[in-house]
């Protein structure tokens, strides 16, 4: 039974920080590219950051230098550190494996 469970979202003021976690179970996520995505209401879901099996990372332009994606394979957990948050970062954040088609339920980030 595959599960991706996000946590760590919340409400912060602009300039603040949050650390999102994605606990993965049921499949060997470390072998696949994993990513963080975000979505505002009915707008299109946007890819934010990705981390490959070898640990290499990629970011969408608007979050470079502010967000950091990482993973701890011993804990089967992926993270997204969000620093210097802006109001436009407010969204539901999801972790996912696009290759396998697995998605979490999302965690809300609100920046005011």
Provide the succession of SSEs.
Answer: EEEEEEEEEEE
Q: What is the oligomeric state here? A: single chain
Which bin fits the share of residues in helices? Answer: under 10%
Class derived from helix and strand content: mainly beta
Instruction: Count the beta strands.
Output: 11
Largest sheet: 7 strands, mixed
- Poorly predicted regions are none
Instruction: Tell me the Rg in angstroms.
Output: 13 Å
- The pLDDT mean sits at 96
Q: Describe it for me?
A:
The chain is mainly beta and 112 residues long. The protein has no helices and eleven strands. It has strands spanning 3-7, 10-12, 18-25, 34-39, 46-51, 57-59, 67-72, 77-82, 91-97, 102-103, 107-111. The strands form two sheets. Strands 2, 4, 5, 6, 9, 10 and 11 form a seven-stranded mixed beta sheet that branches. The protein has a four-stranded antiparallel beta sheet with strand order 1-3-8-7, with no helix packed on it. The chain is globular, with a radius of gyration of 13 Å. The termini are far apart. The relative contact order is 0.33.
Quick rundown:
This protein has no helices and 11 strands. It has strands spanning 3-7, 10-12, 18-25, 34-39, 46-51, 57-59, 67-72, 77-82, 91-97, 102-103, 107-111. The protein is globular, with a radius of gyration of 13 Å.
């Amino acid at each position: 039974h595959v599960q991706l469970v996000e946590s760590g979202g919340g409400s912060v003021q602009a300039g603040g920080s949050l650390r999102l976690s994605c606990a993965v179970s049921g499949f060997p996520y470390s072998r696949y590219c994993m990513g963080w995505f975000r979505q505002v209401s009915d707008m299109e879901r946007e890819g934010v950051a990705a981390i490959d099996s070898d640990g290499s990372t990629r970011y969408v332009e608007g979050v470079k230098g502010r967000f950091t994606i990482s993973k701890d394979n011993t804990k089967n957990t992926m993270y997204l550190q969000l620093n210097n948050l802006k109001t436009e970062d407010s969204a539901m954040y999801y972790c996912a494996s696009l290759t396998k088609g697995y998605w979490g339920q999302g965690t809300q980030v609100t920046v005011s």
